[in-house]
Amino acid sequence: MKPFTYERARTPAQAAAAVARTPGAKFLAGGTNLLDLMKLEIEAPGHLVDVQDLKLDRIEKTREGGIRIGALVTNTALASDDRVRRDYGVLTRAIVAGASGQLRNKATTAGNLLQRTRCPYFYDPNQACNKRKPGSGCAAIGGYSRQLGVIGTSDACIATYPGDMAVALRALDATVETVNSAGAERRIPIADFHRLWGDTPHIETALAPGELITAVTLPKPLGGTHLYHKVRDRASYAFALVSVAAVVQKDGSGRLAIGGIAPKPWRVEAAEAAMPQGAQAVAGRLLAGARPTRDNAFKVPLVERTIAAVMAEAKAA
Amino acid sequence: MEDDAGLAISRRGMMAGSAASMALAGTATAISAEAQPAAPAPTMPVSLTVNGRRRDLSLDTRTTLLDALREHLKLTGTKKGCDHGQCGACTVLVNGQRINSCLSLAVQHQGDEVTTIEGLGTPEKLHPMQAAFVRHDGYQCGYCTPGQICSAVAVIDEIKAGVPGHATQDITRRAPLTREEMRERMSGNICRCGAYSNIADAMAEVAGAKA
Amino acid sequence: MKFDTPAGTNPIDRLTVVGKPTDRIDGPKKTTGTAPYAYERHDVAANPAYGYVLGAGIAKGRIASMDLAAARAAPGVLAIVTHENAGKLGKGDMNTARLLGGPAIDHYHQAIAIVVADTFEQARHAAGLIRVDYARAKGRFDLDEQLRAAPLKGDSSGEGSAAPPIERVGDFDRAFAAAPVTLDQRYTTPDHSHAMMEPHATIAAWEGDKLTVWTSNQMIAWAVGDLAKTLLIPKENIRVDSPFVGGGFGGKLFLRADVVMAALAAREAKRAVKVALQRPLIANNTTHRPATAQRIRLGCAKDGTITAIAHESGSGDLPGGGPETATSQTKLLYAGANRLTAMRLAVLDLPEGNAMRAPGEAPGMMALEMAIDEMAEKLGMDPVAFRVKNDTQVDPAKPERRFSQRRLVECLERGAREFGWDRRSATPARVRDGQWLVGLGVAAAFRNNINMKSAARVRVSGGRVTVETDMTDIGTGSYTIIAQTAAEMLGVPLSAVDVRLGDSTFPVSSGSGGQWGANSATAGVYAACAKLREAVAAKLGFNSADVTFADGQVSAGGRQVPLAQAGDLSAEDAMEYGDLAKKEQQSTFGAHFVEARVHALTGEIRVERMLAVCAAGRILNPKSARSQVIGAMTMGVGAALMEELAVDKRFGFFVNHDLASYEVPVHADIPYQQVIFLDEVDPTTSPMKAKGVGELGICGVGAAVANAIYNATGVRVRDYPITLEKHLEKLPATAMA
Q1: How many CB atoms lie within 10 A of CB C158?
Q2: Are C485 and C12 in contact (CB under 8 A)?
Q3: C622-641 vs B196-207: helix axis angle to the nearest 10?
């Protein structure tokens, strides 16, 4: 871990300004992913701006009938919130399917959105990785890629976004609110928040340097049955091979977002129109253009089968 | 010297060249090989309360809460199994909540109350969970044990406080205090000796759990 | 003491302390975090510096140059040791690859440097500043490819599992060709990582030319010997201390890089140095259980009698390494007149393969017991009945040689009753519970027993007893069973016994490996106690041979004297073994039963119930022995369902080298586990009449899980681990929403 200086900011604007003013600075919230990567010097900030005192840890009603989740609300607090459990159950279910109780106590809403890929080649500094070291190549292509992406990947990178919470947020049409060092605020639809890798896999989100997430808002509740089915080898404390966040209405219509297969939570609104026709029709449209590897080709049928499982669960609910 | 000289790298990936020469730094971000007299790393004062006692430290900012406990306060009951949040051996309670102390900087904990395994009980006066672990043989090599016990104490509190879990059927209600709930919530504490079934027995006894 | 005739009645048989399900005496320490592990010995070496190990970034080739300038200039750096300044080093007998690499690199993450600094943070950062130029060489990384031309190779794991290159009994080929029902299948098991929770860790300190290492090691005397050979210093100048070991499973049988690098670093820095191998280094830097490719052929008569049985296995290792002895159990487990076992060894440039919990049998039984299940189905027989039918009470290759005890049939039949085996559907894929397919599976468990010479020193003083031996407790319960043994022998309560372990200044024990530790180490304590009893009796003026030690009293012929009056006496002895194990085959047996469920759509697999029935001699402490068995069952579930070191065959390394990507079972994977020990004593093993259980528990579990999955789905997966993609698209058709 590279030496760094450390400060605690008192307001979001002050935090954003501190990061903008200091070369190599980063925000530190829960730190559960950032410190992990700093120990391997995959992340090497020279200055950390700790945002824990920004008082962004509340969940409030919005005028539109939804909720605003402070950026620093922990995963545990968000999953435990009564409104979330009642109105946005898919979010609670996605969060508690992720990581461990210890990590959820520390991880924040904003930090969770920003967690980086778990590609094993990204995690091994001896291996070529365009995400870690732009232009160095991608050792994962042609390597061990069972966990990696099948769609939305590129010739430069086949990693996935590994999180669970954001998959539910995508199904719920969340919006990410930010502030920059000039104090300017911005609202980024969750669909646009995570980028496809393209030729620049080191750029992972729509955030500008120094831009700070302050909140995530959810529109008014959708009703319906909320489900999150996470498929993995061991029963807990593992990243998804495939996960499906679903909100299914009584008439069989609904929303589906898929985790574990792409650089971002994968949702194709047009595919959802096919939900009454069944999982095969949905999956066909969701995964049109998929480019799996030999190791992860199974994810294509697995997505269809997991959607089928979720639709059956919804019917039974 | 040139990085990766002689390796056939394509945009489609990277081919292993035979007898190729390559240069690697120990890590990805290593700086130039020229020795520059480096400034000492920044240090900061940190005060926290550990097991009821206020401790004032001056630490390299890079020091994790785990290393502050183990190396600076010599509270070695908290274990380092992976140092990357992948095993749970470093679990401690901070302001009553369990966290992985390896993935937290000590400087993040200014003013916090930390409880470690040493704060739960002593060999002469075991905490009820420690006593239950002994009775049910909820450990073997003992290395993950302090983390398991800290987690076990917290898990029962979490369930009682109404925190939902992955095993919870109806998330709009309080989760029941069952073995299934506890097993799921303990899953961030790996025990390679495989004492899980015994740990579940110990927790069930302390919690007065339903089957 | 020499053990060369079966044990008669002895003080252990009273079973007032031995045989009781006693809480571990080290439990209060372990549960309060006060048991000191290697890296935590703040009490032993003043002001230690911190070492951080740099592993090689390539699998095979040479270091062309190393630039240490930036690292040397980094704050706090005290010393750096590489091949350039380490001086001449030897290699330990037990090591295949050198523990300090360079200029030649033998495998990925082989240690090539250690950076020593005042703090851990400084050492870690400075290690990242070392710049290495490599000349990469072509390596052999693909087991299947290398096995094509690999020679036959026999070996002993040194852990009770052994097989010659090729062994024939009768005429396998003819019998197999003639058999009306045959099976010929290939099975594979992947590389496994021990993944013990405590990393390999050492504090090293020199005093003149004397070296002390506080470390985490299963075999103290081996560590002393190999450290002496590596550093080229006399054994007498080395002390190794390892009172608590945070898991080993075979991964800490041998001297490893943490010890050597700490010792070299301490010498260079002229200061005590502490080192823990960082977790991402462990999978490639240390040893692992090698992958196997196995072929099993079975020929049976229509009534289910095995007439031909062949088991061939191939594995790979670095040059000079050995094979995984996966065929070992097949020589002994089932009857059959015509037999063949053979092993091939390929040379691979992957990290060093070596022993992991039940080397040989663990992967061998995963294959054999799946093949047996498949054959039972071909025959239309119940798999329990098929195993019972082919039981043998003698070594099939030497019918005059009996098993000392063999109660496999009883294990199977008792387990079948307890588990509700009669509820199993003989036809697979017939039982459903909502979206889940449910199945039951069985497998036999088998592991040989070995006895190793083991010594101890026992002292009595004021009625308190102290036992000293270099035996280790790696979670096995050694502290407690040794205390139980001494308490029983000397007639004192358990609370009057102190046990001190793991120090090379103590008498040399069997150490912990090959499931020999429990019987061997306690037998050594028995020998020392027997000698001490004589000394006590003599001192207290008893001349009868029939002296009783009980309730703190020594008595004979109506006279009774408190043990405390014997004053301060000590005795040291070792238990050594004659050829009883040659005359009769000493093995341990069991049966595993598993209920598994498979999601009909997603293919996810979960284990719902597990039972093991074991027959393994006298169980010295049923509580800790049960824990050994459930722990092994848990590791077996890992092997069945998730554990695999993924090989990058281009670059030659295990890709998933941390605990997030090498998945081992977690709490949620493991249901309540039931263990039944059959009441057994085996007087041929030692005066303790015990055998091991710690490895028996893993042998066969994986196959029982696999067989339960097959029973649930009707899809046979022969390549472990059984991950969902291997059966996903073959699952029975189900209504898709």
Answers
A1: 18
A2: yes
A3: 120
Is C62's Cβ below 8 Å from some Cβ in B?
A: no
CB C166 within 8 A of CB C342: yes
C684 sits in the region (left: phi over 0; alpha: psi -120 to 50; else beta) called alpha
- What is the pTM for the complete model shown? 0.97
Q: What is the CA radius of gyration of chain A?
A: 19
Picking from B44, B88, B187, the nearest residue to A6 by CB comes out as B44
Q: In chain B, what is the straight-line distance between the N-terminal and C-terminal CA atoms, in Å?
A: 65
Question: Within 10 Å of residue C597's Cβ, how many Cβ atoms?
Answer: 23
Nearest alpha carbon to residue A214 among A194, A186, A193, A240: A186
Q: pLDDT tens digits, residue range C707-722?
A: 999 999 999 999 999 9
Q: What is the Cα–Cα distance from A101 to A98, expressed in whole angstroms?
A: 9
Give the CATH fold of the B123-211 domain.
DNA polymerase; domain 1 (1.10.150)
* CB-based contact B154 A101, cutoff 8 Å: yes
**A to B CB pairs, distance under 8 Å:** 157
Place of tokens 């993935």: B103
Question: Residue C162 pLDDT more than 90?
Answer: no
Which chains have 3 or more CB–CB distances shorter than 8 Å to chain B? Answer: A, C
| Structure confidence by residue, pLDDT tens digits, C499-554 | 999 999 999 999 999 999 999 999 999 999 999 999 999 999 998 778 999 999 99
The shares of helix, strand and coil residues in chain B, as percent rounded to the nearest 5, are 30, 20, 50
Answer whether C641 sits within 8 Å of A302, measured CB to CB.
no
User: What is the complex's ipTM, to 2 decimals?
Assistant: 0.98
Q: Which domains does chain C have, with CATH numbers?
A: 2-35+451-581 (3.30.365.10), 401-449+586-736 (3.30.365.10)
Rounded Cα–Cα distance for residues C72 and C270 (Å) = 16
**C174 min Cα distance to partner chain A (Å):** 41
Name which of B92, B94, B97 to mutate to probe chain A: the one with the most chain A Cβ atoms within 10 A of its Cβ: B97
The span from the CA of C682 to the CA of C691, in Å, is 8
pLDDT at C155: 82
Say how far apart CA C387 and CA B41 lie, in whole Å: 66
CA A130 to centroid of chain Cα atoms: 20
Q: Is B81 on the interface with A (CB under 8 A)?
A: no
Q: Point out the residues of C that are catalytic.
A: 695
Query: Looking at beta carbons, which residues of chain B come within 8 Å of C626?
Result: 137
Separation between Cα atoms, residue A304 and residue C513, nearest integer Å: 47
Q: What is the pLDDT of residue B12?
A: 43
Helix, strand and coil percent figures for chain C, each rounded to 5:
30, 30, 45
Asked if the model's pLDDT at residue C380 lies above 60, the reply is: yes
CB A234 within 8 A of CB B183: no
Instruction: Report phi then psi at C422, rounded to 5.
Output: -65, -15
Report pLDDT for C116: 98
Q: What are phi and psi of C569, to 5 degrees?
A: -135, 150
Number of CB pairs < 8 Å for A and C? 115
- CATH of the structural domain B41-120, one choice from 3.10.20.30, 3.40.50.12500, 1.10.287.990, 3.40.50.300: 3.10.20.30
- The residue ranges of chain A whose pLDDT is under 50 are none
Residues of A in contact with B88 (CB under 8 A): 100, 102
Q: Are C83 and C102 in contact (CB under 8 A)?
A: yes
The residue length of chain A stands at 317
Q: Which of residues 13-52 of B touch A (CB under 8 A)?
A: 13-15, 24-30, 39, 41-42, 44
Q: What is the DSSP letter of C552?
A: T
Asked if C668 lies within 8 A of A234 by C-beta distance, the reply is yes
| Tens digit of each residue's pLDDT (9 = 90 or more) over C179-238 | 999 999 999 999 999 999 999 999 999 999 999 999 999 999 999 999 999 999 999 999
Domain boundaries, chain B: 41-120, 123-211
